[in-house]
Amino acid sequence: MGFSKQTEEVRSAAERAGALAQRLPRVVASALRAEGWRSHLGEVEPERIRDRGALAALPVLRKSALLALQKAKPPFGGFAMASAGGYARLFSSPGPIFEGEKEGRDPWRTARALNAAGFREGDVVLNTFSYHLTPGGFILDSGARALGCAVIPAGPGNTQAQLELISAYRPTAYTGTPDFLKIILDAADAGDIDASSIKKAVMSGAAFPPALQAELKQRGVDAYQVYATADLGLVAYESEARAGMVVDEDVVLEVVRPGTGDPLPDGEVGEVVVTLLDEHDPLIRLALGDLTAILPGASLCGRTHTRIRGWMGRADQATKVKGMFVRPEQIAEIARLHPTLGRLRLVVTRESEQDIMTLFAETGEPAEPDLTRALAASLAEVTRLKGEVRFVGRGELANDGKVIEDKR
Fold first, then answer.
1. What sign results for the dihedral spanned by CA atoms 324, 195, 142, 214?
2. Structural domain boundaries in the chain
3. What is the Cα–Cα distance from 330 to 314, expressed in whole angstroms?
4. The model's pTM
5. Average pLDDT for residues 258-271, to the nearest whole number?
6. In angstroms, rounded to a whole number, what is the distance separating the alpha carbons of residues 206 and 12?
7. At residue 280, what are phi and psi to the nearest 5 degrees?
8. 99, β-bridge pairs
9. Strand, helix or coil for residue 240
10. What is the pLDDT, as a whole number, of residue 4?
11. Tell me, which fold does domain 104-230 have in CATH?
């Protein structure tokens, strides 16, 4: 299907550099046709941007800045190469940040990652990522279908319905968050339902701690991790070597000192900056706000592109909960909806292999049940995730500017 390790994935460093020298100037020239990129990049000569060093001299565009840019010039802030009508699907990720899906067989380029995880033509895939408004479900769906797999568009939640699907279709593979697969398997065991058809999985969107990895392996599921975002699709993926994640062939990944665009030496933890080598919809040095480090050397699986340690947290306060980003701007929106409250702080923890959100709110009076319900409803509406609400007295939350605290 075009993802053989005998092609792009095993190129030498010289071959890869030569290909980059050909592609990068064309990508930059294409980006400059969009008003947003012209304004952001300033005076730049595309023909001079031929390697990673020249690329590093260009300014970084922070994903966190897209909120204001898109609001000022909807829907894409002037950075897209087409109008909204030029895309196959249109999405709104939490923030909100607006994204479009291009036409094509594998627009998010995830077939390569699924292939590395052992997905093959004829597999039946239970896809539990959301198909509602956000592109998560489609990102994995399109890659699986490009490989010739049949996809069950199950979406998240509704465990009983998931078990009915498993009984009927006998899926061989799973895509979704790690904790939801555990929930499904536990529920199958409790209900004496055979879910043993699921032998392989691709995980994303949530932490996948070693204890859960070991448990799923013991239960007969060979699970791999994928790093993908709604902005560009596949960033990196785990291979059979189980030693970090291999960067996708259409991505140039840099690790920079947080808050700057300055690349760090290999091994240093910093912020992920990506350039998507797509002349039809380019991204130039987009800072994702995620932390990682570049690993030395090539993967033992034979793939020769850059390897990273994987997702290591956030460079800003935004964090992923059950596969969805929660951002400081959303907590501010909740505060605007409830102006009588003092400081708010969303604390994210993990219990029984599940992400838990608790919103702490300062109030000078004993909290009434109506306020508790209203605040919980606002939290769910703004973040699209359910969480608990707890009230504390005025001044009890630290005056440190932190509105999201990830304790996982």
1. positive
2. 104-230, 321-406
3. 16
4. 0.78
5. 85
6. 33
7. -85, -25
8. 91
9. coil
10. 56
11. Rossmann fold (3.40.50)
